[in-house]
Amino acid sequence: MATLLVLTVFLPFVGSLVLFLQPKLEKKTARMTALITALVTLAFSLILTAVFKPDVTTPQFAAGAPGGPYGWNWLSGAKIQFALGLDGLSVWLFALTAVLQITAIFASWESITERPAHHYAFLLALETGLLGLFASLDVVVFYIFFEFTLIPLFFLIGIWGGPERRKASIYFFLYTLAGSLLTLLGVIALVAIHYQHSAGHVLTFSIPELTHGLANLKWPGWHSATSLTSPQVFIFLLLFAGFAIKVPMFPFHTWLPLAHVESPTAGSIILAGVLLKVGGYGLLRFNMSMTPLGAVYLFQFLVTLAVIGVIYGALTALAQTDVKKLVAYSSVSHMGFIVLGLFAMNPTGIDGAVIQMVNHGLTTGALFACVGVLYERYHTREMSELGGLWNRLPLLAFFLILSSLGSAAVPGLNGFVGEFPILAGMFAKNRTAAVLAATGMVLGAYYLLWMVQRVLFGPLREPHQHGDHAHAEVRPVGWHEIAGLTPLMVLIVLIGVLPAPFLARINPVIEPIAARLESSVPTTGGTPAPEVTHMNPAPAAVVARQGSR
Amino acid sequence: MSHDIPLNWFLYFAAASFSIGLIGVLVRRNAIAVLMAIEIMLNAANINFVAFWRYGETPPGASPLSGVMVAVFVITVAAAEVAVGIGLILLCYRRWHAADVDRYDSLSG
Amino acid sequence: MPPTAAFTINFRDFYVLAPEIVLALWGLVVLLYDVGWLRKLPNASRQQKLGWITLLGVFGALIAAIHALMVRFNLYGMQELFNPAWMDFDRPEPVIFWGTLAGDLFTETINLFLILMLLVAIRLSMAWSFTDSWGEYFALILWSTVGMMLLAAAEELLTLFLTLETMTICLYLCTSFEKNKRRSAEGGLKYFVYGSVSSALFLFGLSLLYGLTGTTELYAIKMVFTPETGDSHIGLAGNVSGMTALLLMLVGFGFKVAAVPFHQWAPDAYEGAPAPVTAWIATGSKVASFVALMKVLLLGLAPWSNHMRDVATPGWVGVVAALAAASMTFGNLAALAQRNLKRMLAYSSIAHAGYMLVGVAAAGYSSRHSESAGSVLYYLIIYGFTNLGAFAVAAWLARDKDSDDISDLNGLGFQYPGLAVCILLLMLSLIGMPPLAGFFGKLYMFMEALNEKNPEGRLTMLWLVGLGLLNSVVSAFYYVRVLKAMFLRPAEGTVVAPAGPAIALPIVVGTVVALGFGIYPAPLVDLMKSAAVPMLDVSGELIGSSLERAMWNRARRAPTGPPTDVKLELPASVAPQAGSTAPQAESTPPPLLPGTGKGQGAASKKGGGMGKGAGKGAGALKKKGQGKGQDASKDAPPSDQPKTDSPTKDAEKTEAPKKNESGSDDLKKAAPKADAAKP
Description:
heterotrimer; A: about 550 residues; mainly alpha; about 0% strand; globular; B: mainly alpha; 3 helices; about 70% helix
């Protein structure tokens, strides 16, 4: 299985190389090559998901003995390993990447006519980066894939994007790079601290080993968080810088709307669907697992940011007239929800956040694909120019409504499965934040339905372009668009009605993390900082709990 | 040794001529003068070397002659530097018809 | 080591120097061939012919360098094969020519990489005809390389200075070889003026160092400066003469590696020089200068690094850290403003020097010296090859467009996708994007920087590393500009002609290095880490014969004062008398060897004679310089030794009057200051 995992991760890259080396390929051949590669990758990842054991907390499909060192020695001197594996946190995001890739390829099926081979090559390279990122068990490997994702997306936006594509791509690239280098600094600091203070001076880059080792560090200074310069808090902030930009959390979100608006549809789907999840995933994998005291110390600050993000995103989305911008800002709002769930620091909230990452990937991916379908036909995304499309494009209307409802967290669809636990978790922790976030949820439902209403219902409004070109021949939704959107619709409904199997795989991994967080959290709410200092013995208890699992 | 000039006299002298050279490099605008100032700096270092060699002693195992050796070699190096420097100054002079370093201004930024 | 070592030259010494000798002689061959046979040919064909002939010689040197490494690692039974009676390979002596040059794994490795870079640079020089004095050009490039290789091997300050000058004088001339351009001559002159002023500053610092120690050998300098009290690293607090020497040498090195604030020459010289020469200055000379810098700082002046304390206290670590911070920040910010590709690369190479200085500071700081130094070496090599590729792009523009604006690259990605992807990888590696080699270079260096046990030091290094990473972001801005021009903008104006092998080679080689050592960096990292070991320690430890080493050990072992008070320590020559009173000096010292006490008078005289105040550093010297009222050139009879040294602070004062006439006055002045400087 370890081989299959590596194969899954690198298969798109092979496809990408093949497409790169044959730049003169016809559109048809190029897209078929890409589709077949993506389909095989999807099949592999579904196999991996199917055989994934629900109750195991250690990474699965990793080379090497379970619990021991994973992966293959890459740099023996520096103890860096090429280690891949999946656990409950990553398995669904891994599968989501493979699914959305299909949607992305179908979304660019007809719309990409300029240098198609390179377009698909970059898409596939991006997929490798994302799959590898979710599967990596070594911080260096994680970071490599993390940075690697920037390059294909830079070109996707910069070459095939809208009128301001150059600005958007460079903005995106530099913004993300800036944050990720701070993250790198934090990661290096973690490894160095682990090396110096662990028993026997263990130099390791392995994520599971670091997580475990840092919890049992024999350094009293590590286990207290009294000020911003306490090691855990400081490193938390360093790590946070990169992931918060990726999420994006409230003050760091400015790159997102620009990147989304200028990006081609496929780029938007992957960007919103998967790339933003990298931020949440990183927060959970690094910040919450390795520097929990930092999260506890900064609780108020983080929750405030998240709530501001939820409400600000929703309000800004309300003010948009461009459908794509609206969806982009709704992402800011929904990602704020996810962060809120993470910082609820109880199993309910984190569970909800993890499943919501998948849900948001599905619904936003679908929404962007729908916007892409619209744009391909009318070359506009202005809501004032569109209306009453229900009659013109009934299938599109169905997809748009279903994904909007899913995104608006209507019970029975997937959004509810994620957002309800988030709110419940947060309510147990901090009522004000939960109530404020709930208003964000209401606003979310409002702007999404408003958008649906303006675009789909009412009198038919179509933009007049190309002179008096009649829109009678507007192409109906094609088979490739149906093929790209249908899996997402199925999953939106499936997770909505049958969330148990999904949650069952997430839960076991969440519990120890949440337990560690809760053991260092004062239960009364309020300001956590003073209590933290005398929670020092806590990690030992946590370790015992972890050990017993 | 009691009637010799004390070491620190040499050192003061070397430091002074070094400073003169350095100031010359910084202040003079004529390329030839700059070149001369550089030579003064190198020779100041030479004085140091020879004085230290004459008055000082080497730690065990080290070569007892290194001070003079350095001085001899530095004289050679200085000669080479002058040759190259004059060549370069001539090259510039031919293009600008000036030996003033401030006039050479095709590069900036 | 003339005094004790036998005056014989082992043939092995020449054998070890084979690559350098081949290159030096080949320079003559090229020159003669040009003068003798090629005068009548047209310029371009002369260039090609001479270029190939030069490459032949470089290949010869390459074979010699590879051979040395093969013998070292005994590949294919090389040690047995190449071990005639007169070539004694088993002799474990890592220094040659009486300790002036090193001949160990480190120099062999650096030679190999320098020759490989030279190969690429010479092939790049054949790209287009920018001068008509090809014989001189190639000969000078070869000789500058000889200077670089010997500079990397220098174990002694005179050799270091000479080789440094050999290297730079050749490069001054190469810079002004583009005859039809004003800026070439101007760049050469500016390079010359800044370079020779920095050499003079360096030399003056060197003379002070010689005065303080009485020797020019790096290892001996380390020995003189190493306090005998074990771990108490005194740094340079109050030692004005030492600080002056250190600062002057750092200024000199700062010029050579183009660190802010001594960088002004670099952009001008880089822009003025023909692109292949720029490439060679930016890579070869920087590699060699950095190696020399590390040798001097990490080997010779290691006791002055003051690594047990915070960086802010006197010692070179703090100075180097400040230089690093300034270079990184200024280099990157200045590069942001550039539109000219060569100038941008010049400023970026200033910034890279800053990153590497972080590594040097870390190496001075950390307890893992050789690993840290190895990480800097790794970065240097990667930097060298990727930058050669980057300057080849500049050469391409200079050849076809006679300009080097970044905007001239517009649309390159569509015309030549293969090379454009290579350039993309080079730029990403220079930014430090994974999984390219530049990323691992930074990762290793910064990892080592943070691997510091002392928490205060770690915090400082954390800031420095954080600054370095932030600077990587800034650097992304201008490197991405190149990518933007190549891939995101349509072509305009004249079209660049196909690169041709001369320009493609550096780009491709750089890409292969960036990608290959990015995906699998282990071999190079391991090689560099093991090469750093002899660079820092072993070669020094084995300097000279065992007799000298024994002398060193005796001289150092005998006196041990209370750890806090350096001045109390007594030299070997007086230890018998002092032993009765000094509790720490109980162990009976070995008999005085002729010459043991000798060198130390010199140090003390200078310490005082400088008249610049003497603090602890001077105290450290005095303890060695057991005063003998003696002319330096004569040996002190043992009876001259002071007999009444007591283990108190008064030792200083009682000692002082017994000093010789020339130094005593100053010593008397210095002594109270020294006492006052003590806590």
